[in-house]
Design a protein that fits this description.
The chain has 386 residues and is an alpha+beta fold. Helix content is 34%, strand content 30%. The longest helix has 16 residues.
């Protein structure tokens, strides 16, 4: 009898080997590696930017690793149920998602994946790296975000794979996945991506945050401990095997929209026409220079001032109006870039400012312009000439 029990026990061990704790089914996040780099800056001096990349660890092809991760999520987080699944990288502020980037969308039935096309052109259904966001000027109100890896599940319908094609189109045309500006203006393409994602995620039956971490775009003032580079290993185990992915996220800052030397804190070879053309907002799917946009959409004082300036000349307190124009530019640009755009506006519309006694607008801020390397001597001489 004892011999039989020993043989039976040996048989069980052979065919049902004990699974070590390291091979337990599921998704496990390792110890985050965080870097808090960058020079402290003043609020409003820089813009925020963020990007991400998923890499395979250990030599497994990235497509296989991402498929394995989805297998493990489906088996161990959602009960191996048939349905559609969407994995996203998201940035949250105060608990609200401000950026959603789809990573992979799959339909799962009969314990198999359907409708994954790994091509890079149409309905590819997966992305491994890219931009997350480019923001307006950063201050204490919008600097801090949370990065989240989030999964969505729908039991009886599929997620719209056109979101991946729309993202390709956005990246090709605008080189960003989302653009957060002061008043929420966005192009038609960006709106399309947001709408598709919003509708898809709102209709999900279940949502789960797999991972979250607090980060910031810039080191503001004396606060130098903000996480700006994150690397986190992701280990997955499913019935198809195990593997590892590495998630890299960088929340960083950009000094200017123009050529700018961050060490000398001066613009490089400033050209007013370039500044005008490179500072536009997206309105009705068109890129409109901020100056032209404000002529139609600014407040009453701005519209009246710019209308008179470019038609017959302005006869009132032009220094005050220039100050209001600078304030309006601050809604879209950093402290430095707003000042640079004011200089460019005066330079490009020098005839209009000359007949409007616009030398006051330059002389009143000559020290600020000169400190940034924006030339004023010839401009003032022209504005004062007869």
């Amino acid at each position: 009898m004892r011999r039989r029990l020993f043989i039976l026990a040996l048989f069980c061990l052979c065919y049902f080997p004990a699974q070590s704790s390291a091979e337990s089914p599921g998704v496990e996040f390792g110890q985050p590696k965080v870097q808090s780099l960058g020079t402290p800056v003043q609020p409003g001096d820089v813009y925020g930017t963020a990007d991400f990349e998923l890499k395979s660890i250990g030599g497994m092809p990235i497509t296989d690793a991402l498929t394995g991760l989805m297998n493990s999520i489906i088996e161990n987080r959602f009960g191996n149920n048939d349905g559609s699944y969407l994995l996203t990288i998201e940035l949250l502020r105060n608990g609200k998602s401000i950026v959603q980037r789809p990573v992979i969308s799959v339909t799962y039935t009969n314990k198999k994946f359907l409708f994954i096309n790994w091509s890079t052109k149409v309905s590819r259904g997966a992305t491994f790296k890219g931009s997350l966001v480019e923001t307006e000027a950063i201050d204490n109100s919008n600097n801090d975000v949370e990065v989240a890896l989030r999964s969505y599940y729908k039991s009886n319908s599929t997620f719209d794979l056109s979101i991946f094609d729309a993202i390709d189109e956005v990246n090709k045309n605008l080189n960003v996945i989302s653009k957060l500006d002061a008043i929420g203006i966005s192009s038609g393409l960006l709106t399309s991506v947001r709408d598709i994602l919003m509708k898809a995620t709102q209709k999900a039956d279940e949502t789960e945050d797999l991972f979250k971490y607090s980060m910031s775009f810039a080191q503001l003032g004396n606060k130098g401990d903000r996480a700006r580079i994150l690397d986190i290993p992701i280990r997955f185990v499913s019935h198809n095997g195990s593997g590892q992915l590495g998630l890299h996220v960088r929340t960083w800052s950009v000094s200017s929209k123009f050529l700018f030397d961050p060490i000398q804190k001066k613009y490089i070879d400033p050209i007013s026409s370039v500044y005008i053309n490179n500072t536009s907002v997206d309105a009705a799917s068109l890129h409109v220079p901020i100056f032209d946009f404000l002529k139609k959409n600014g407040d009453e004082n701005i519209r009246s001032f710019l209308g008179d300036l470019t038609s017959k000349g302005y006869s009132g307190d032009i220094y005050t109006r220039c100050s209001e124009l600078l304030t309006a530019y601050h809604k879209y640009l950093s402290n430095r870039d707003a000042l640079a755009l004011l200089w460019a506006t005066i330079n490009e519309h020098r005839f209009d400012f000359k007949r409007s006694r616009g030398a006051e607008c330059v002389e009143g801020r000559k020290g600020e312009f000169d400190a940034l390397g924006l030339p004023t001597d010839a401009l003032v001489a022209y504005l004062k000439s007869q």
